[in-house]
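Q: Could you fold this chain for me?
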Amino acid sequence: MMENKIYPVKFHIEFLIIIFLSCFVSKANSSLNKLNRKENIQKASFAFGFKNNFQRLGLIKTRTPENPPVKNKFLFRWVDPFIGVENDGNVLPGTSLPFSFVRLGPDVPVPHPTTGYLSDKPIKGFSHTHVSGTGGNGQYGNISVLPTTDELNVTDNASDKSDEFASAGYYRTTLNRYHIKVELTQSQEVGFHRYTFPSSKESHILIDVGSMIKKNGQYLRNIQTRAIFVNNHSVEGYGECAGSWGHGYPYRVYFYAELNRDAEAIGIWNGDTVSVSRKILEGKDGGVFFSFSTHQNEIVCLKVGISPLGIEKAKENLDEQIPHWNFNQIKERAEKKWESYLTRIKVQGGSDSERTIFYTSLYRVFIMPTDITGENPKWQSGEPAFWEYYCIWDTYRTANPLYLLIAPDQERRIIRSLLDIYRHNGWIPDAWITGHYAMQQGGTNADVLLADAIVKDLGGFDYSYAFKAMKDNAEKKSDKVGIYGRHKEYQELGFCPSDIRCGTSYTLEYAYDDFCIGQVAKTLNQKADEERYFRYSLNCYNLFYPEQRFFWAKTKDGIWADGFRPDFRLQHYQGGYFYEGTPYQYAFSVPHDMQGLIDRMGGKDEFLKKLDLLFDGNYYTQTNEPDIEFPYLYDYIGRPDKVADRVRKILKEDYNTTRGGLPGSDDSGCMTSWYIWGALGFYPVAGQDVYLIGSPIFRNAEISLEHGKKFLVIAHNVSDTNRYIQSAKLNGKPLNNTWFRHEDIKDGGKLELEMGAVYHGWGQNSTPPPSLSIQK
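A: Sure. Below is the predicted structure, expressed as structure tokens.
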């Protein structure tokens, strides 16, 4: 007979509360941002004041920042590579590693964006080279692999998909047409495929040697393919293509591919002609195949090493980087690699969605450019080598300053590679695609990137040599204007006239480039060049239209062009005055002399009205680069509350966790790094040692700097409504300015902010950030 036990009244009350709260939490689970059941009980128990009793009864565990939910123990688990694959985000949903040559992912039939992928289209293969977050023409998509079953089909073989999933360094889907589960991971130059086949007497792995991502009617083309079977489980060769973004020059991708089993049959195809048992492929396009029978759930693995240098190097990459067939080990190694980059910024607070966007953004920033160090087919050099600067016009604003802060050695390597291009070719590029110069989008924008590093004293490269390269870009006569160098009219007239495509935006960008050269001259104590280039930097005002208080176009005779409108826009290829923008989107493009611009616009009040109208009149766009610094310009007139309003609105409305969750093309990490700066609460004035203060969304951010130093951003009481800074401290001292210098944080430090829901005037009496007009 069971003994009757009498429990204390206190225990009964606690037990009833537990039952009640368990039911309550279960029903409210979806509104609590998918926290697990124990977390929900913990959250509810706090509200009722029973935290200690719940812990004593063993129903919850105390969780600290060092003991996060198991779901997100590692930061790479916050990464969702599908964010932004639609809505012209043009980001890669497949696998990658930081700056890797292999970027392995799914491609669909045309039409498609530059990544070759759309969510609602069938998959035609998984290729090994991609760009991420770029507009324009197709690019790469080389050495594509497709597993199939049933009768061999080399033309109409795309398959619908299901069970699609991706994370940092891993991609998975099922090809419904063939009932094959596909899993992908990789090393820097090797793609690793794991296929789970159904029972089939005819299973195949097709390698399209001539594959490339291209759109109908564009000039991308196949030139040559070649492959030869080494044996019944290995094949080597190359695909040669032409027509990268911005130029038509050819490039080759060499490969060495190896199966973990022998094929029962091998062969090639050209066009739609299949040749069984033939071991050599030659022609403009085509591919090779392995065929075999499989039993249910049989796993077949494929490794593909690639290189731009040669077949031997491709095989060497395969043998050295993945010498075994342990797929999970390579997947885990890829995850650890990403973790080492993502942990450079650790945040606390914010919502699950905000952390997902933040860490996915941080992941995106490290995908481009492509590191081919040691495999440069153009020249031999002991310097780092990169392809896919796509383009510096995009990345100098947000991505490169972020590298400098949290990945300084990477920024040094980028700079050294740019200087090595100059050493061998005579010009620093704005765009460098598959080993060739491509179209400039603005001025000589590498000037900004180099100045940013020199004024922040990054070190690790020759400042004097960089200064020489900058001056050559500015002063040498260019034989390919629009590709490298500058328009001679700017040098002769002090502006680019209206008959030059994008002449007004060129003028504004050249002027800022001149300021950056002047800063480097100042650092190097080159007084004459300092004064000369600072003077050139005021050329921007040669196109300031005083009656309209906008920048506009002049003829070479100095007469204002007709047809002014703030929203005037012709595309750059139609002869417009501004590259991918309007007069309003370039109206404040004088980052080196904002005070001079404020004065010309009629003072602070008029500047405020005009800046407000930019946003409230829907002239501002987050989808492109020219105006993305403008939300922070309120700091120049002591209105950080306006910065908070504008930046928080953009973060909330233009970024989300859906497949269309970016405001437009990521542009090689520019737009996602903008989100990172916005979420952290400060923003770089690229080319200067200045950061403008915004409104952080996380209560704590720990930013890892070089040599083990840490910079902390702490926002007390921050929330969606508590967006306004009440008071600030920098490194323990009161901060009344709306900005600070890189010098203040480069050796570590702490920015501490008290946040509130009502603005009480912090920063109104700020000393303005530096401007050339008031520079001492």
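A (continued): Confidence is low (pLDDT under 50) at residues 1-71.
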